[in-house]
Sequence to fold (323 residues):
Amino acid sequence: MVMATGALSLSAWYLGYHLFAEILLYLNIVVYFVLIVLNIIRLSVNTKAVWSDFTNEIKGPGFFTFIAASSVIGSQLSIISNMPILGFYIWVLILFLWIVLIYSFFTILIIKKSKPLINESINGGWLLLIVSTQSLAILGVLMQGPSNYEDIIMFISLCLFFLACMLYLAIIVLIFYRLMFFEMEAMSLTPPYWISMGALAITTLAGAIFILNGSGIILEFETFIKATTLFFWAFGTWWIPLLVVLGIWRHVIKKVPLNYNPELWGMAFPLAMYTVGTINLSQALELSFLMIIPDITYMIALMAWGLIFIGMVVHHGKRLRRY
Fold:
């Protein structure tokens, strides 16, 4: 939810809806800290369940939403509230947590004795590893760190960008393999598959941010970054019609109910992030005709976010009445 709200807020800001962007920022900060408190409570009273989720091939990648959400909040503060110094402290903390999470996650899965089949474990949620890594790369460029460390920060951010690109290419092959060569049940085609596009959208944003705001070593790779960014944007754009068709197949033909589920935020985030990425790509490559796309996708993302938010309120309202 924080990722989706942050991406929508940044979309609104870039398109000139500054008041709405600020409202979403304040809402996001409240939701972010509420979720942190709830997760601390869950960790303290049900540690075994949290550990079981983290070591699970399907649920484990979901922990990287904390990295991405924190980085998105930092980017909002840097761009909308003009607080890049606060963004620096968030970046340092989240970078440390990202290192702990990503190496713990991969180590645990690699040394596991009992491993599931690929069609039982890999899904779009795995691409949260890419989203979290690119969100760190973006914040590294946007925030304002100590001037004597600027070259180091830019170097780390660029390395994170390329690492995330490589991870996407590795993981998407496995996802494609599952989609193409294993039977897909309608219930298995969950909203997190939209992150297949969302990971590309945030990669596009990272590349464009590098071109527009990068310094030091980033300038040495500017031409390569432009080509890479356009490559990933084109792939992300290709995903959208396919995901829409698969969604129609799931809910219209197979009649899977479209009830509120927290996983639906995994669909709202890519739509909003695609808007932000395309806006910045248009500026970075000086392709003004691309701005036709964000005007359309922003309204779609806003509608999706609004419907999911209403669904969440109604869902939890019913639960409270039962108690």
The mean pLDDT is 91. Residues 140 and 153 are 6 Å apart (CA to CA). The domain at 2-315 is CATH 1.50.10.150 (Glycosyltransferase).
